[in-house]
């Protein structure tokens, strides 16, 4: 259960290198007004075989080995970072409210998701992609990954881009985020199916599925389609009220003593429940985030005097923000840095395949979204901006790549192309939307700094009004 001093020191040095480079990359990309997640991956890219490995292969292999104690410990941090990232994504999915632009959302959700996904499946079926498959990959699982990679849109990346541009509170942003939420939920459902099929194909079953003692692919498809949907439906129906009652209960010693610990236990138990059913744990992290999203929104909001009970406030106030800060400050940057380390552009990058894959993915996604927007009655300029915004694959695309690679569904060449696809499409969306704002094609709201100043001004005015009302009340009483 303990490490030798030399091994512990090695792990600490590796973590210091990954954290420092990830945050340095994120800081630089923030100054450049680019998605910080890409900077964190770039930091890992510098520490990996692509850059450091070319300068000093022996030193790079010693610092970040692929086998041994250090590799195992870093793998654990990588997995926890992935689960917490998916959990935070789940909290964002449920916290989006209903929107009035239902016609546009409906058309884009159907056209912008179904068409590129089906197009990707068709291309995968008629193209020889055997060279991209991993040891557990099959034509079916590989085609599903190919289709998802073309169809997915990133909620965190595109929302951060629109926040920085001051357009997050506009109708344009509401349409993009509403559709992206639907796409992300379906992404993880399909991903659970893909991982289940790969598990059956590898004859490496675990959980409830292992009790069936079969490696039949048709049965695996039925099982891993029905079980994730049933799990999602039951948890979304009964999970939020149960979570609220348990988290606010004075008998919940864990929530009273450490709300962060209670949230982590809830996430990890949800992941363990999925493992017990034979589903990949990331699906449990997503559902846990969706179940606790309402509580997360309350925790993130400022406390109101005389509102919730003392027990509930003490058990939950600020716990989501604290956990989010820990995850985004340590675990998630380590995860993205390790993703960057895994990218070996010197030995596992096919530029010819990547260029036609990038062109295919961008055209299929953008044209599908543009078509849906035009059918919904949007103007050509608005439809083009929507198409470019929803072409950003960001975090979900990277999660898809790393999970499929970790399950040996795809090989390292395809993994590299998927990660680069997510990076480049996110960059393209940020640059295009920035130009659209400067051209006046997109209405802008107040910037984050202006929003803070307006909030402080409103608070000051409320305080001045309260003092004035109090003075009037006292004067009236004296009379």
| Average pLDDT rating | 81
Radius of gyration equals: 24 Å
Which CATH C-level class is it? Answer: Mainly Alpha
The residue ranges in which pLDDT falls below 50 over 5 or more consecutive positions are: 301-315, 446-450
Secondary-structure-based class equals: mainly alpha
Strand content: under 5%
Element string (H = helix, E = strand)? HHHHHHHHHHHHHHHHHHHHHH
Subcellular location: Membrane
Biased composition (Low complexity): 450-462
Organism: Streptomyces cinnamoneus
Protein name: Na+/H+ antiporter
What does this entry show, briefly?
By secondary structure, the chain is mainly alpha-helical.
Tell me what the structure shows:
Belongs to the monovalent cation:proton antiporter 2 (CPA2) transporter (TC 2.A.37) family. It holds the Pfam family Na_H_Exchanger. The chain crosses the membrane at residues 71-93, 105-124, 144-163, 175-200, 220-239, 260-279, 322-341, 353-373, 414-433. The protein has a single domain (86-331, 349-465), classed as Na+/H+ antiporter like fold (Up-down Bundle), CATH 1.20.1530. The chain is 78% helix and 0% strand. It has helices at 5-31, 36-47, 52-55, 57-63, 69-94, 102-126, 139-151, 155-165, 171-202, 208-211, 217-248, 253-257, 259-277, 281-291, 293-300, 310-316, 319-342, 351-375, 380-389, 394-406, 412-438, 448-478. Helix 5 (69-94) crosses helix 17 and helix 13 crosses helix 14. The longest helix is centred in the middle third of the chain and has 32 residues, at 171-202. It is globular. The termini are far apart.
Characteristic terms for this protein:
479 residues; mainly alpha; Na+/H+ antiporter like fold; 22 helices
